[in-house]
Fold:
Amino acid sequence: MATCPFLPEEHSFIPVFFHKNRGLSHNDQFHALLYLYCKGRDYFPIQQIFPYICTMKINPLTYAELSRPMYILEEQRLRENLKLISNVAKEADVEIILAFKAYALWRTFPVFHEFISATTASSLYEARLGYEEFGAPTHTFSPGYTDYEIDDIARCSSHLVFNSLTQYGRYHVRARLENEHLSIGLRVNPEYSEVETLIYNPCAPGTRFGISSEKLPTTLPDDVDGFHIHCHCENGSDAFERTLEHIEEKFSPWFRQLKWINFGGGHLMTRKDYDVPRLIRTLKGFHKRYPWLKVILEPGSAFAWQTGPLVAQVLDIVEDHGIHTAILNVSFSCHMPDCLEMPYHPTIRNARLADEDGTAQGPHTYRLGANSCLSGDWMGSWTFDHDLEIGENIIFEDMLHYTTVKTTMFNGITHPSIALLHTDNELEILREYTYEDYRDRMD
Ligand SMILES: Cc1ncc(COP(=O)(O)O)c(C=O)c1O
Structure:
């Protein structure tokens, strides 16, 4: 009997729809023929022969059509974020580029192209992704470039930011030889950040990021065009306004020597309570004071903020000492690592957090447990409005930014697929993971 990644086993038909606006590639046509062949002979599973072309209408309120774990990017929400971000860029006369560290689903880059024209990279692979898949050289910063990667990084970059004067001294000539158009910058440390979580604070004493003002030479090297400053994480525009005062106080003496300034990421302008007019005002004010400086912002989270969930299913319910744990087909460690790392408790659709330490007991209350062998791979207790049933969906909200780039294949657990929900509620699988993905990471 045929099976499809979207459908519970009992569905005996094969839902293959080709999106009306996207033609069939040769690969698609091959798979379509293979499908007809297999259909005649009754061999499947269909996900092996339709890895990319299955699409179907889906109900985004429940995702009841799914029986496998899946990250779902909602195109409509992504477009709304992109629109807001590109409006800020236009109104404030700045450039806003996408930080790959937060979001790198390259099959959606055509949508991004409608709104932005550059990206920022923190490694060779991100720089290649920008250059080869986004189609534009990247603004690149890494705390440590290497002899074995600097040439490729320079080739794929438009802007190259050095973290220290030593790194600058070691590589700036070589990078320019590789790419004569490269614009070179230095990361500076404003020694001021309102980020409270220590692991996300790039300015905490002892930081490894950036050069502080007292270590900068009064006259910058000739080929330094810009400063790069990153000191925000999910901050509001009020924090940016206050931070800017510190930045100007420390670094404005050098501004005359620069062409551009990059105020990094962490500007969460797509969050509902973010004061966007204040950001625009602040940027315009800065522009007025230093009209020769091109201003760049490079948020990541803001692009993919609230753009879709991770949908998982309940596999079992176990009990110990009165604590009921719903075992899921996903792992916090592998598929939602920030929940353990940051740490934070995710939002779960139609459930409320009963307690953070996972000891709550009561009607419809469950600890949520992963399918890995890590004892600590569980999260809090949630109260639902009914008893959970095996096979039902658990919808973890807002699981696109950072999550999709940070997942692992620890334990060999099947990695959730990644899908794009189009504006007409048609779901398109972008990527499914296989045993070979797990095997081929190692030797
Ligand atoms: C240098 C730099 N730029 C941009 C970002 C993106 O930040 P966010 O995703 O919070 O906007 C980060 C995040 O760590 C960063 O370190």
